[in-house]
UniProtKB/TrEMBL annotation:
The lineage of its organism: Bacteria, Pseudomonadati, Bacteroidota, Flavobacteriia, Flavobacteriales. The keyword Translocase does not apply. This is EpsG family protein. The chain crosses the membrane at residues 6-24, 31-50, 108-129, 141-162, 182-209, 216-239, 285-300, 312-330, 336-354, 366-386. It comes from Salibacter halophilus. Keywords: Membrane, Transmembrane, Transmembrane helix.
């Protein structure tokens, strides 16, 4: 209790420092609580500037503020608004209406987003820290890569990104602690983002086939790189057959043939000079690192002697990666790679913790190190756009007396460097 009070006091004085101290002292239970609270504080102080215009977070804020002046006298009026909004994702609409009843402050809305996102983010982080020992420099780098696959500054895409951590949390709780009830988190994700009907369906299917030989999953994974992607018309036909009109209208924006064509054209011109080379390479490079480990684990599986639960995590990673390869031509289809990357990185950390002595693993660590470092550096650099100066250097008491507009670290860096 004394330690908790000390960390609580330190958090009030300087939240970011409390986070660092808890991690340095390896008090993982306390670190989880501090990280969760810091996620809420981060949301409250997130820098929503010019770079965010047109993003989901701006739309969420605008809707909540517009609802502030509307009257919702009964539960039926809540439900009527939800039905007429054309929105499928229940949680975000519920939060927009609920928060708008007592404030129009974007900071309060983002505080709540941060606490919800942070609960699952801190939970995934805690599970990795609790059951694994970061006993080498390379393992520490991979752990920080795990944190940066879907970091705090991505909470602006609240629906999908929260669902990613929520789904992963259910899977990792089951993997590390054998808690079958934890899979309920996975099944609740479609209430946060409707597209998670896809990974939930994969998980249900996987539960029937998980005892199949690893060769089946690896073959599916390997062939997915060469097989043609699902056409948008095929997906749209399936959606129309199982969903109601509201669901069809909501999903049309994702699978409309014109949008898919535009998406493919833009994907073919990403190196046209409009983007820096590392802007595309850093995420692809880290994914290649993961693919390399999966290949290594498969072809050296007799030497590694993976345990039953490790094999399950391995098979699930191959399944999600393979399926995402088949839908990556659909707008937003590539985002499902994030689930597989989180699960696969947790698997890699487990295997490296147990089997770092093998020469082939030591060699691959050296080969993959540059791409891991690139991923870490560019991810942190991207986070400067939404991370505020106040979020790092101020405290909860101080920001209460500010006007709610915060300066991002990227602007501070530019001012310092000229």
């Amino acid at each position: 209790m004394t330690n908790f009070r000390l960390y609580a006091l330190l958090f009030i004085i300087q939240p970011f420092l409390a986070l660092i101290v808890a991690f340095y002292n390896k008090r993982w239970e306390l670190f989880r609580v501090v990280l969760w609270l810091y996620a809420g504080y981060y949301g409250f102080t997130i820098a929503v500037g010019a770079e965010s215009q047109g993003s989901d977070i701006v739309r969420y804020i605008a809707e909540m503020q517009s609802l502030h002046n509307k009257s919702f006298d009964t539960l039926s009026s809540y439900w009527s608004y939800y039905q007429n909004s054309g929105e499928i994702d229940f949680l975000r609409s519920f939060l927009a209406i609920s928060v708008s009843r007592f404030t129009e402050s974007q900071n309060v809305l983002l505080l709540i987003y941060g606490l919800i996102f942070g609960y699952f983010y801190s939970g995934n982080t805690f599970l990795v820290l609790k059951y694994l020992r970061l006993n080498t420099f390379y393992n520490k780098l991979l752990f920080f890569s795990f944190l940066l696959i879907m970091p705090l500054w991505t909470m602006g895409g609240f629906r999908f990104n929260t669902s990613v951590h929520m789904f992963t949390y259910g899977v990792l709780l089951y993997f590390f602690e054998g808690n079958r009830k934890a899979l309920i988190y996975c099944f609740l994700t479609p209430l946060v983002h409707f597209s998670f009907l896809i990974p939930v369906s994969l998980l249900v299917g996987f539960s029937f086939f998980k005892k199949m030989n690893i060769r089946f999953f690896f073959l599916f994974f390997a062939l997915s790189f060469f097989a043609p992607s699902f056409s948008s018309n095929t997906i749209q036909t399936y959606i129309n057959s199982v969903g109601n009109q509201t669901f069809q209208e909501r999903t049309d924006s994702y699978v409309d043939e014109n949008k898919v064509s535009n998406y493919r054209e833009s994907s073919n011109t990403v190196f046209s000079g409009k983007r820096n080379w590392y802007a595309d390479l850093y995420t692809k490079g880290y994914r290649w690192v993961i693919f390399g480990y999966l290949l290594l684990f498969y072809f050296k599986r007799k030497s590694l002697t993976l345990k039953n639960k490790e094999n399950i995590l391995f098979k699930l990673s191959l399944l999600i990666f393979g399926f995402t390869n088949l839908i990556d031509d659909i707008p937003s289809g590539k985002r499902f790679f994030l689930i597989a990357e989180l699960i696969a990185t947790a698997l890699i950390l487990v295997v490296l913790y147990r089997h770092s002595i093998f020469r082939f693993i030591k060699i691959y660590k050296l080969v993959s190190l540059p791409l891991v470092l690139l991923f870490l550096i560019v991810s942190i650099r991207a986070g400067l756009l939404l991370t505020s100066v106040e979020g790092v250097f101020a405290n909860p008491l101080l920001v209460l007396f500010m006007n709610g507009e915060y300066t991002d670290l990227n602007s501070l860096l530019r001012a310092i460097t000229g």
